[in-house]
Protein backbone atom coordinates (compact mmCIF):
# COMPACT_ATOMS: atom_id res chain seq x y z
CA UNK A 1 0.00 0.00 0.00
CA UNK A 2 1.35 3.41 -0.91
CA UNK A 3 2.16 5.71 1.99
CA UNK A 4 2.19 9.49 2.02
CA UNK A 5 5.94 9.44 1.44
CA UNK A 6 5.34 7.83 -1.94
CA UNK A 7 2.99 10.59 -2.90
CA UNK A 8 4.71 13.60 -1.39
CA UNK A 9 8.22 12.21 -1.81
CA UNK A 10 8.58 13.89 -5.20
CA UNK A 11 8.57 17.19 -3.41
CA UNK A 12 11.95 16.37 -1.90
CA UNK A 13 13.65 14.28 -4.56
CA UNK A 14 16.75 15.74 -6.15
CA UNK A 15 16.79 19.03 -4.27
CA UNK A 16 20.01 21.04 -4.10
CA UNK A 17 19.27 22.85 -0.86
CA UNK A 18 16.67 23.49 1.80
CA UNK A 19 15.72 27.02 2.78
CA UNK A 20 14.37 27.25 6.31
CA UNK A 21 12.46 30.44 7.01
CA UNK A 22 12.88 31.57 10.64
CA UNK A 23 13.25 28.08 12.12
CA UNK A 24 13.40 27.51 15.87
CA UNK A 25 16.67 26.18 17.26
CA UNK A 26 15.42 22.62 17.73
CA UNK A 27 13.88 22.55 14.27
CA UNK A 28 17.14 23.70 12.69
CA UNK A 29 19.16 21.11 14.63
CA UNK A 30 17.17 18.31 13.05
CA UNK A 31 18.16 19.48 9.58
CA UNK A 32 21.78 20.03 10.46
CA UNK A 33 21.98 16.26 11.16
CA UNK A 34 20.77 15.17 7.70
CA UNK A 35 23.70 13.96 5.59
CA UNK A 36 24.76 15.89 2.49
CA UNK A 37 22.10 18.51 2.82
CA UNK A 38 22.73 22.17 2.13
CA UNK A 39 20.69 24.15 4.66
CA UNK A 40 20.17 27.89 4.25
CA UNK A 41 18.42 29.86 6.96
CA UNK A 42 16.36 32.91 6.00
CA UNK A 43 14.95 35.41 8.47
CA UNK A 44 15.13 38.86 9.96
CA UNK A 45 17.72 37.49 12.40
CA UNK A 46 20.04 34.52 12.48
CA UNK A 47 18.80 33.23 15.83
CA UNK A 48 20.12 29.73 15.21
CA UNK A 49 23.62 30.85 14.18
CA UNK A 50 23.47 29.13 10.80
CA UNK A 51 26.63 29.46 8.68
CA UNK A 52 24.53 30.06 5.57
CA UNK A 53 22.13 32.87 6.32
CA UNK A 54 20.10 35.26 4.18
CA UNK A 55 18.75 38.31 5.96
CA UNK A 56 15.21 39.50 5.31
CA UNK A 57 14.99 43.26 5.76
CA UNK A 58 11.43 42.94 7.08
CA UNK A 59 8.81 40.33 7.88
CA UNK A 60 6.76 39.57 4.82
CA UNK A 61 3.21 38.47 5.67
CA UNK A 62 2.63 37.28 2.14
CA UNK A 63 4.34 33.91 1.81
CA UNK A 64 5.12 34.10 -1.89
CA UNK A 65 6.73 37.52 -1.34
CA UNK A 66 8.70 36.11 1.58
CA UNK A 67 9.99 33.22 -0.51
CA UNK A 68 10.72 35.36 -3.55
CA UNK A 69 12.72 37.70 -1.37
CA UNK A 70 14.64 34.84 0.22
CA UNK A 71 15.54 33.61 -3.26
CA UNK A 72 16.67 37.05 -4.37
CA UNK A 73 18.80 37.37 -1.26
CA UNK A 74 20.25 33.89 -1.81
CA UNK A 75 21.21 34.76 -5.38
CA UNK A 76 22.68 38.06 -4.21
CA UNK A 77 24.81 36.30 -1.59
CA UNK A 78 25.79 33.55 -3.98
CA UNK A 79 24.49 30.73 -1.75
CA UNK A 80 22.10 29.54 -4.48
CA UNK A 81 22.32 29.60 -8.28
CA UNK A 82 19.89 29.86 -11.17
CA UNK A 83 18.48 26.42 -11.96
CA UNK A 84 18.80 25.10 -8.39
CA UNK A 85 15.92 23.03 -7.10
CA UNK A 86 15.00 24.13 -3.59
CA UNK A 87 12.65 23.17 -0.86
CA UNK A 88 11.47 26.20 1.07
CA UNK A 89 9.98 25.55 4.50
CA UNK A 90 8.11 28.33 6.24
CA UNK A 91 5.17 28.99 8.53
CA UNK A 92 1.75 30.20 7.50
CA UNK A 93 -0.57 29.36 10.37
CA UNK A 94 1.70 28.69 13.34
CA UNK A 95 4.92 30.00 14.76
CA UNK A 96 6.57 26.70 13.88
CA UNK A 97 7.27 25.71 10.28
CA UNK A 98 4.13 24.12 8.82
CA UNK A 99 4.49 24.55 5.06
CA UNK A 100 6.79 23.25 2.35
CA UNK A 101 7.10 24.64 -1.14
CA UNK A 102 9.30 23.36 -3.93
CA UNK A 103 10.80 26.00 -6.19
CA UNK A 104 13.21 26.15 -9.08
CA UNK A 105 15.48 29.16 -8.87
CA UNK A 106 15.28 31.35 -11.93
CA UNK A 107 18.14 33.71 -12.60
CA UNK A 108 15.68 35.94 -14.48
CA UNK A 109 13.73 36.45 -11.28
CA UNK A 110 16.66 38.51 -10.03
CA UNK A 111 15.03 41.92 -10.10
CA UNK A 112 17.32 43.97 -7.88
CA UNK A 113 14.67 44.46 -5.25
CA UNK A 114 16.86 42.82 -2.58
CA UNK A 115 19.60 45.34 -3.10
CA UNK A 116 17.07 48.15 -2.93
CA UNK A 117 15.57 47.04 0.39
CA UNK A 118 18.40 45.46 2.24
CA UNK A 119 21.27 47.73 1.44
CA UNK A 120 19.88 51.23 1.34
CA UNK A 121 20.22 53.95 3.89
CA UNK A 122 16.48 54.48 4.40
CA UNK A 123 14.58 51.96 6.51
CA UNK A 124 13.32 48.94 4.54
CA UNK A 125 9.69 49.41 5.59
CA UNK A 126 9.84 53.01 4.35
CA UNK A 127 11.14 51.89 0.96
CA UNK A 128 8.48 49.20 0.81
CA UNK A 129 5.72 51.69 1.62
CA UNK A 130 6.88 54.14 -1.06
CA UNK A 131 7.29 51.42 -3.67
CA UNK A 132 3.78 50.14 -2.92
CA UNK A 133 2.41 53.65 -3.13
CA UNK A 134 4.03 54.24 -6.53
CA UNK A 135 2.71 50.92 -7.81
CA UNK A 136 -0.79 51.67 -6.58
CA UNK A 137 -0.66 55.12 -8.12
CA UNK A 138 0.50 53.59 -11.39
CA UNK A 139 -2.32 51.08 -11.35
CA UNK A 140 -5.13 53.51 -10.67
CA UNK A 141 -3.77 56.80 -11.94
CA UNK A 142 -5.31 60.00 -10.72
CA UNK A 143 -9.04 60.17 -11.47
CA UNK A 144 -8.54 57.67 -14.25
CA UNK A 145 -5.68 59.56 -15.94
CA UNK A 146 -2.08 58.34 -15.87
CA UNK A 147 0.15 60.27 -13.49
CA UNK A 148 3.86 60.52 -12.93
CA UNK A 149 5.55 60.87 -9.57
CA UNK A 150 9.04 61.16 -8.14
CA UNK A 151 9.97 60.07 -4.63
CA UNK A 152 13.45 60.61 -3.20
CA UNK A 153 13.92 58.42 -0.16
CA UNK A 154 16.65 58.79 2.45
CA UNK A 155 19.55 61.18 3.08
CA UNK A 156 16.98 63.97 3.08
CA UNK A 157 19.24 66.75 4.41
CA UNK A 158 21.61 66.39 1.51
CA UNK A 159 18.76 66.05 -0.98
CA UNK A 160 17.24 69.29 0.33
CA UNK A 161 20.59 71.01 -0.18
CA UNK A 162 20.64 69.91 -3.78
CA UNK A 163 17.13 71.03 -4.61
CA UNK A 164 14.87 74.02 -4.33
CA UNK A 165 11.16 74.67 -3.79
CA UNK A 166 8.83 75.09 -6.74
CA UNK A 167 6.03 76.18 -4.46
CA UNK A 168 5.20 76.38 -0.75
CA UNK A 169 5.83 73.11 1.05
CA UNK A 170 2.56 71.64 2.36
CA UNK A 171 4.56 69.39 4.72
CA UNK A 172 6.58 72.27 6.19
CA UNK A 173 5.37 72.06 9.78
CA UNK A 174 3.85 68.61 9.77
CA UNK A 175 5.29 65.44 11.20
CA UNK A 176 3.70 62.85 9.00
CA UNK A 177 5.12 59.59 7.73
CA UNK A 178 4.66 57.41 4.68
CA UNK A 179 2.51 54.42 5.38
CA UNK A 180 -0.09 56.39 7.39
CA UNK A 181 -3.31 55.95 5.37
CA UNK A 182 -4.07 59.69 5.42
CA UNK A 183 -0.59 60.52 4.16
CA UNK A 184 -0.91 58.10 1.29
CA UNK A 185 -4.07 59.92 0.24
CA UNK A 186 -2.28 63.27 0.48
CA UNK A 187 0.71 62.03 -1.53
CA UNK A 188 -1.56 60.74 -4.26
CA UNK A 189 -3.38 64.06 -4.35
CA UNK A 190 -0.12 66.05 -4.56
CA UNK A 191 1.36 63.78 -7.21
CA UNK A 192 -0.52 65.78 -9.82
CA UNK A 193 1.81 68.66 -9.08
CA UNK A 194 5.33 69.28 -10.24
CA UNK A 195 8.58 68.24 -8.67
CA UNK A 196 9.68 65.59 -6.22
CA UNK A 197 8.74 64.37 -2.77
CA UNK A 198 11.61 64.22 -0.32
CA UNK A 199 11.30 61.54 2.37
CA UNK A 200 13.65 60.93 5.31
CA UNK A 201 15.34 57.63 6.26
CA UNK A 202 12.63 57.07 8.86
CA UNK A 203 9.79 57.90 6.45
CA UNK A 204 8.96 61.47 7.43
CA UNK A 205 7.68 63.53 4.52
CA UNK A 206 10.14 66.38 4.46
CA UNK A 207 8.86 68.19 1.39
CA UNK A 208 6.76 68.14 -1.74
CA UNK A 209 7.35 70.29 -4.86
CA UNK A 210 11.13 70.04 -4.85
CA UNK A 211 12.99 70.78 -8.02
CA UNK A 212 16.13 68.65 -7.99
CA UNK A 213 19.41 70.16 -9.06
CA UNK A 214 21.90 67.32 -8.76
CA UNK A 215 25.46 68.03 -9.74
CA UNK A 216 25.99 64.56 -11.19
CA UNK A 217 25.62 64.68 -14.93
CA UNK A 218 25.36 62.19 -17.72
CA UNK A 219 23.66 59.49 -15.70
CA UNK A 220 23.18 56.38 -17.76
CA UNK A 221 19.43 55.93 -17.96
CA UNK A 222 17.41 54.11 -20.63
CA UNK A 223 16.75 56.16 -23.76
CA UNK A 224 13.35 57.78 -24.06
CA UNK A 225 13.16 58.74 -20.42
CA UNK A 226 13.13 62.44 -19.73
CA UNK A 227 13.95 65.03 -17.10
CA UNK A 228 12.12 63.42 -14.19
CA UNK A 229 14.06 60.17 -14.53
CA UNK A 230 17.32 61.94 -15.25
CA UNK A 231 17.00 64.13 -12.15
CA UNK A 232 15.87 61.20 -9.99
CA UNK A 233 18.73 59.01 -11.20
CA UNK A 234 21.35 61.70 -10.84
CA UNK A 235 20.46 62.68 -7.27
CA UNK A 236 21.13 59.09 -6.19
CA UNK A 237 24.68 59.42 -7.38
CA UNK A 238 25.18 62.66 -5.49
CA UNK A 239 23.62 61.42 -2.25
CA UNK A 240 22.80 58.15 -0.45
CA UNK A 241 19.14 58.47 -1.36
CA UNK A 242 17.23 56.15 -3.63
CA UNK A 243 14.70 57.39 -6.20
CA UNK A 244 11.39 55.74 -6.97
CA UNK A 245 9.88 57.08 -10.16
CA UNK A 246 6.48 56.48 -11.70
CA UNK A 247 6.48 57.40 -15.38
CA UNK A 248 3.48 59.22 -16.72
CA UNK A 249 4.34 58.22 -20.26
CA UNK A 250 4.93 54.47 -20.03
CA UNK A 251 3.31 53.73 -16.67
CA UNK A 252 6.31 51.84 -15.26
CA UNK A 253 7.80 52.22 -11.81
CA UNK A 254 11.58 52.40 -11.69
CA UNK A 255 14.05 52.59 -8.82
CA UNK A 256 17.47 54.20 -8.97
CA UNK A 257 20.40 53.85 -6.62
CA UNK A 258 23.97 55.05 -6.95
CA UNK A 259 23.03 56.68 -10.27
CA UNK A 260 21.87 53.40 -11.76
CA UNK A 261 18.52 51.90 -12.52
CA UNK A 262 18.15 48.80 -10.36
CA UNK A 263 14.49 47.90 -10.65
CA UNK A 264 11.76 48.24 -13.24
CA UNK A 265 8.26 46.97 -12.54
CA UNK A 266 4.95 47.14 -14.33
CA UNK A 267 2.26 48.09 -11.81
CA UNK A 268 -0.28 46.09 -13.80
CA UNK A 269 1.65 42.93 -12.95
CA UNK A 270 1.04 43.39 -9.21
N1 LIG B 1 14.84 68.29 -11.94
C1 LIG B 1 13.60 67.93 -11.61
N2 LIG B 1 13.24 67.84 -10.30
C2 LIG B 1 11.99 67.49 -9.95
N3 LIG B 1 11.02 67.21 -10.82
C3 LIG B 1 11.31 67.28 -12.12
C4 LIG B 1 12.61 67.64 -12.61
N4 LIG B 1 12.59 67.63 -13.95
C5 LIG B 1 11.35 67.26 -14.31
N5 LIG B 1 10.57 67.08 -13.22
C6 LIG B 1 9.15 66.70 -13.18
O1 LIG B 1 8.91 65.69 -14.15
C7 LIG B 1 7.80 66.05 -14.93
C8 LIG B 1 7.88 65.36 -16.27
O2 LIG B 1 9.06 65.73 -16.98
P1 LIG B 1 9.57 64.87 -18.22
O3 LIG B 1 8.41 64.50 -19.09
O4 LIG B 1 10.73 65.56 -18.86
O5 LIG B 1 10.11 63.60 -17.45
P2 LIG B 1 10.09 62.08 -17.90
O6 LIG B 1 11.33 61.49 -17.34
O7 LIG B 1 9.85 61.95 -19.38
O8 LIG B 1 8.85 61.50 -17.07
P3 LIG B 1 7.50 60.83 -17.65
O9 LIG B 1 7.89 59.46 -18.12
O10 LIG B 1 6.60 60.79 -16.43
O11 LIG B 1 7.00 61.73 -18.73
C9 LIG B 1 7.86 67.54 -14.96
O12 LIG B 1 6.59 68.09 -15.24
C10 LIG B 1 8.30 67.87 -13.55
O13 LIG B 1 7.17 67.85 -12.65
MN1 LIG C 1 8.08 62.77 -20.41
TrEMBL record:
Gene Ontology MF annotations: adenylate cyclase activity; ATP binding; diadenylate cyclase activity; manganese ion binding
EC class: transferase
EC number: 2.7.7.85
Cofactor: Mn(2+)
Known catalytic reactions: 2 ATP = 3',3'-c-di-AMP + 2 diphosphate
Keywords, ordered alphabetically: ATP-binding, Manganese, Nucleotide-binding, Nucleotidyltransferase, Transferase
Entry-linked InterPro entries: DAC_DacZ, DacZ_N, Diadenylate_Cyclase_DacZ, DisA, DNA_integrity_DisA_N_sf, DNA_integrity_scan_DisA_N
Pfam family, one: DACZ_N
Domain DAC: 110-267
Signal peptide annotation: none
The keyword Manganese belongs to this UniProt entry's keyword annotation: yes
Presence of keyword Kinase: no
Matches recorded under Gene3D superfamilies: DNA integrity scanning protein, DisA, N-terminal domain
UniProt similarity note: Belongs to the adenylate cyclase family. DacZ subfamily.
Primary role: Diadenylate cyclase that catalyzes the condensation of 2 ATP molecules into cyclic di-AMP (c-di-AMP). c-di-AMP is a second messenger for intracellular signal transduction involved in the control of important regulatory processes such as osmoregulation.
Listed name of the protein: Diadenylate cyclase
Species annotation: Natrarchaeobius chitinivorans
Phylogenetic lineage: Archaea, Methanobacteriati, Methanobacteriota, Stenosarchaea group, Halobacteria
Amino acid sequence: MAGLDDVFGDLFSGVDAVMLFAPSGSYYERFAKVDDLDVIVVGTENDVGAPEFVELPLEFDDVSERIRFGLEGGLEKGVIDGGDELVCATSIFEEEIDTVSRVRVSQDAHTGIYDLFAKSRAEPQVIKAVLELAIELGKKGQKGKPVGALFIVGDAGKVMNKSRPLSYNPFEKSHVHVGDPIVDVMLKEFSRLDGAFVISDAGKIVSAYRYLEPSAEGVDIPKGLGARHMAGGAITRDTNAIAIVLSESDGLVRAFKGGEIILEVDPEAY
